Amino acid sequence: MSEHAGAAITGGRTALGIELGSTRIKAVLIGPDHAPLGVGSSDWENQLVDRLWTYALDDVWTGVQQSFAALAEDVQRRHGVDLSTVGALGVSAMMHGYLAFDADGKLLTPFRTWRNTSTGRSAERLSAEFGVNVPHRWSVAHLYQAILDGEEHVGRLDHLTTLAGYVHWKLTGEKVLGIGDASGMFPIDTSTGDRATRGYDAGMLARFDQLAAEAGVDLTLADLLPRIGSAGHPGGELTEAGARLLDPTGRLRPGIPLCPPEGDAGTGMVATNSVAPRTGNVSAGTSIFAMVVLEHELAGAHRELDLVTTPAGDPVAMVHCNNGASELDAWAGLFTEFARALGSPADPSAIFEILFTEALGGASDGGGMLAYNYLSGEPITGLEEGRPLFLRAPHSRLDLGTFVRTHLYSSLATLRIGMDVLQQAEGVRLDRVFAHGGLFKTEGVGQRFLAAAIDTPVSVGNVAGEGGAWGIAVLAAFAGSRSPERSLADYLETTVFPGADVRTVEPDPVDVAGFDAFMQRYVAALPVERAAVDHVSPTQRGELR
């Protein structure tokens, strides 16, 4: 196996995927059978600067280089060969946000991530003008808010992109974006039957230019946005400068073809084989979101639902919640610290295993406890900022299992609100939902509670073990090997996922009823969370005073 893998690596019969997630940058190398041959990663964290969530661009390249170096070391250790080339390369990252550059390629304002919810006026106006939901985190909402606020940098704009688009641009010189990632910048016209040529909605582009002019800004938005590429199409080649940026040692050779860069939502769909209509997936990490591939257009616009696309350009309803498992991570960290203070230090993964297992024995309805996992604002529930909150009724029994189950329910509660709109108000049906992310690592726990939350069978398996980095590597391989008439869905079903190990859990009626009861209390007590936002102010460092 090692000799065979080594020959594939040295012969360039591989694909490399790099994904910049919210807490980790990861690089995965896959072979001709799409199995991982090596992995490297680097941790990073966003910062709250002037009440805006951001990452420094220097940290982007430090993390990317560390991840690639760790991957090269892993390949050398496992297969005894140097990583000097790959057959194809792809970049993915957190979707949305605002990266604005001038004509000299200078960043005009610190990177504003998807996590920011300071674009309320903009999102509301654009949603009304376009007749579709334009969420707070979309790039166009950030741009229009900057226009409304009279920000000086708007007059010097040359181009806008996402984090994946920025990294790809620096590696290739190409200002291009995969259609899935682009659909989180500006609405896509999915009415045409030709997926390969779908682009930004022309009527909405023209209306935006008019709105900008009314605010005293002369621009042509179409000239600022990246061009669009769909799955299977080329996205440029690794330049000499890009190769050195990725691998400062100089071992990596230029000329490697890249697929169009994609967002983490799209790579999650690929990693879970969820790109065909009536399929969906739920990704749970720092944020939590569901992607449901639609059979037809929705009947109306809903602020709880984003309309985006698959990497192939098919319409998708997205329920995106800014807050996922971070607050649960914080509580697990507290228990880890407690174990250390007792003189019984434990690995954090073991702490998570214990806590999640205990949750299975907790009260099915949360036992009167409530938790809000809002570290940042949450547009679905109308909150522009977040305050993590735990509360209980005086009669609530404070036991460990119910406490942890309450926090697990909390991490899924906002998602449930959006899924109710999709499943009940719009009548969307799902054949399968695949779950992936840290919330589902402990077998049978997060999966069971998600099934209860959306009253739908939920599958997990080893197919998404390396997550979005593996997904973008698969997209890179698809772009490098597909025949023009082959669809992405067919490629995944017949070439990548046959015989995949998948385990499915049906909703437990007791859990479903318990989650319903929890949600009634959760929605009724949202004014308490609102009061916390109104009366507890964050300091500059994001801590509560």
TrEMBL record:
Residues 281-479 form the Carbohydrate kinase FGGY C-terminal domain. Pfam families: FGGY_C (PF02782), FGGY_N (PF00370). Keywords: Carbohydrate metabolism, Kinase, Transferase, Xylose metabolism. It comes from the Bacteria. Residues 15-206 form the Carbohydrate kinase FGGY N-terminal domain. One of its GO terms (biological process) is D-xylose metabolic process. Coiled coil: none annotated. Belongs to the FGGY kinase family. This is Sugar (Pentulose or hexulose) kinase. It comes from Geodermatophilus aquaeductus.
